[in-house]
Amino acid sequence: MPEAAVFQGLSWNPLTDLHQLFAYPFMVNALEAGTIVAVMAGVTGWFMVLRRQTFAGHTLSVIAFPGAAAASLAGLPLAVGYFGFCGLGALALAGIAGTRRSLSAESAAIGSLQALALALGFLFVSLYHGVLNGLDSLLFGTFLGITTQQVIVLLAVALAAVSLVAIAARPLFFASVDADVARAGGVPVSALGFGFLLVLGLSVAETSQITGALLVFALLVTPAATAHQLTARPGLGIALSVALALAVTWLGLALAYFSIYPVGFYVTSLAFGLYVLVRLGRALGRQRRATARLALEAA
Amino acid sequence: MSTVATSLKPKGGIGKEAAVTFDGAAVRLGGRMIWSDVSVSVAEADFVAVLGPNGAGKSTLVKAILGLLPLAAGTASVLGQAPGDLKGQIGYLPQRHGFEAGTRIRGVDVVQLGLDGARWGIPLPGSPSRKRDAARVDEVIELVGAAAYARQPIGELSGGEQQRLLIAQALVRRPNLLLLDEPLDSLDLPNQAAVAALVRRICEDERVAVLLVAHDINPIIGYLDRVIYLAGGGAIEGSPEEVITSETLSRLYRAPIEVLHASDGRLVVVGQPEAPFVHGDRHA
Known about the structure:
The structure holds 2 protein chains of 2 kinds.
Chain A: H1 14-21, H2 25-50, H3 54-74, H4 78-98, H5 103-127, H6 135-140, H7 148-167, H8 169-177, H9 179-184, H10 189-211, H11 217-220, H12 222-230, H13 234-258, H14 263-298
Chain B: E1 18-29, E2 32-43, E3 47-51, H1 58-66, E4 73-78, E5 90-93, H2 107-116, H3 128-143, H4 159-171, E6 177-181, H5 189-206, E7 209-213, E8 226-231, E9 234-238, H6 240-243, H7 246-253, E10 258-261, E11 267-270, H8 280-283
Parallel strand pairs in B: 3-7, 3-8, 5-6, 6-7
Antiparallel strand pairs in B: 1-2, 1-4, 8-9, 10-11
């Protein structure tokens, strides 16, 4: 009986604290939503980092902000705005990539799109005459008030997207690593690139609903980048990326629950801390190996 | 001037079938005739170098064999079929600039992609097909002598090591024809010779016909069976001794060309124009 549970703050008794975490339905919904989003972000993020499309991913997350603002202005569910705008944004990005201009022209075009998206978001918020008190949560995330229906929508979209990535995993991996050889081997490289941007748009739309538009990268990039640092094996890398995204989401939600600070801050800081630790560890390891080699040569 | 593009000597000993045959072939790209009236053939298990100046259409020839570019004239047969009909039987290594240093993908995974990179879905771990694939990948890595570093991230390997792994990737499906576009480009001289020796060995042991696009014939001349020399909008084919002569190349370029024999045995081609040729007179 959730009503029977009384919030008492952190008791430092792990069992009691765990029990408290699951005592309120809103928190159960938040944990479920966070789990779904972390799995999806871990998988798509790993491919996004491999394909060096983090700038496109960032642009999609900025596009999520006017989407959510427009939805609240129109009195629609936020999810409609997130999915609608991120889907359109992915189409626009695919169009930019499809023109096959130089990389610098492409990133300039993507950057312009990003500025426009932010400006639109600001406009929608202004049109709302300042009563959009959810502005902070649109930008920086919240775990309060996630409904069971929202969780079901998140789950359905995530299942569809992750299945698509699983079916296309090897051709997508091939096209990402070595587009020319993949094309010669009969892999539909352009269609895969287009499809991946759409899946990325869906991922960003999902992640925005937990971390807010500006902190999407905490789940989409940082765990994936950390996984790429830790292992060069593709299967293990994807699994690690998901595991890290799950760990920072669960920990972040728990910390936010027991403290007065927002969830986006915790998730982002945890992910960033892990990334820095791994980079430092690898740098130290390289240095030690180099010293060992020098010592061996000297001997 | 269409006599330029003829084979000096009909090739194909007893029992040797043609892997590639072009007859009076031409390719037009963006309104420009790259080459025309090209009649060349590559016999099975032969090691053939494609030479010529920049812009002569060496990569174009490779792409025409792959069926990625249509012929504007003439006919082509690749392993007995029309170009583009048999992707699985041709190993291809495109012209490239190597993997970036930050590419955190193991060499063995890059080789594996040559085997299953075009397959949809995910195989179950531990399934028989997966074990068979892994065994074949290990075998081909052993063949190119890359076993020592195949499990390191490919971005951290040297150009020669990356090239060996890419050749392994192109070989992993046991192709009958291997197309290597400038595989020696970014390698130092000892590595160029080592990779050429490896290709020679693969040719003989695996019975693969190899077409290797190269800039300089010197590091590879000792390993070659034949040479296809593209220049002046045409092509000429023969043994290296037949083709790399002042007389033959002057005929191909329609300009005075000198082939000098340096004291160290190197061949130096002097007087070749590097800019793309004007073709108007050929078809006037």
